[in-house]
Amino acid sequence: MRRHIGWMVLVCGGGALAGTVGPADFAWRFPVEGVLRSGEVYRIEVPAEVYGRAEAFPADVRFFDDAGRAWPFFLEPDRPEDVVRDVAAERLNDAWVDAPEPYHRVDLAVQGAAGGARMRHNRVEVDTSGTDFLRKIEAYGSDDQQTWALLGRGFIMEMMRPRLFRERVLAYPESDYPFIQVRVYPNTRNALEEFAVGTVALQRREAEPVTTRSLGYRLMETPVSEQRVGRQTVLLDLGHTGVPFNRVQVQGRGDYVRRVEVWTRDDAAGEWRFAGAGDVHRIGASIKDEVFAGARARFIRIDLHHDDDPPLVIDTLAVVAHRPYLVVEAASDGPASLYTGSEWVEPARFDAARRLGTSAARANAVLGEGVENGGHRPAGWGRWGGLAATVSVGLASLAVLWVIVRMVRRTVAEPPEAGG
Description:
Layout: H1 2-19, E1 28-31, E2 41-45, H2 48-53, E3 61-65, E4 73-75, E5 82-86, E6 89-97, E7 103-110, E8 121-128, E9 133-142, E10 149-160, E11 164-167, E12 169-175, E13 179-187, E14 197-207, E15 212-214, E16 218-220, E17 231-237, E18 243-252, E19 256-265, E20 273-283, E21 286-288, E22 290-297, E23 299-305, E24 314-322, E25 325-329, E26 336-340, H3 352-356, E27 363-365, E28 371-372, H4 385-413
Parallel strand pairs: 2-27
Antiparallel strand pairs: 1-26, 1-28, 2-25, 3-26, 4-25, 5-14, 6-7, 7-13, 8-12, 8-14, 9-10, 9-13, 10-11, 15-24, 16-17, 17-23, 18-22, 18-24, 19-20, 19-23, 20-21
Helix pairs in contact: 1-4
């Protein structure tokens, strides 16, 4: 009987150990700086180095204090930066105005919200006829259709240079004017062209309160293999693998229009993966410098297609990312560290996101520089360690069942002792 109990303790203990996650399972450690108090909730910005040290961020991330006690945490979910909504407006009239600089005029009456509140708006999208044009566009606002205030001035375009460039939107500071006048001027490339104004849609771009950061990078030399006629290529190294970013910003000198493509890879010798594309331009005071291209990578290739124009003299080049935050609840007085760099651990299953939500008071904390975890014990099967742990637990369960069955059979088989 004692022998069977010993086997049960051994196999159950072995199964528990196989499924336990602790500091020794991680190759890297990032100390949380400052004084930490039990029960407090901290918000920690994730440095780029953490992504590079992780095997599968955030699945292989944990927080432990110096006694090895795990702290609950969650990664704040990313949010879209903006949402564009249509604003209801009645088209009052269309007219051709034969001024010294003639233009096509469209007047809109903004429909009010429920309760009589004024609707707010900050952009207009205009569609015109033609397939090769660059048109100046202006938007004005008024309370009485008598006095008009300039809201914004820019350009809409559709051009083949030889690739297609298209821009339909004029953005301006947010306004609640109930009357809007849109002026669309003739093609600057062909002033005699006749054109018609189609859809004129009033919109509001609602920006989310997302904080961003510019990522550091090293400008790399562009090898001959990456150079193409009519294309200017810039290579960047973010320094760590798997670093997330949301867009790139490009500004050059003079007037220009460029098609921009963004490609990424984690391995310096790997295949490039397409991340996004868009147009950037500077035409007079009208500037568009952002290309939305979300990805997670170390290396970025930015292709600026200049075709027959000379390469762009770049003044500003930035890689922009949403600031990522981990929210952690201190289970002790610390000190504590973020641990990462494990090939086999499963994602953490804490209920901190449900319990804490967005209302819990949070103090800001920062991570120190990453150091190799001196107590790291790599899993014997490397990336198969998780599977091995699962198999060992399963085998332990079967062994326990086998021991119980043997015990029951033996009890049934043994005759009862004779009474005295």
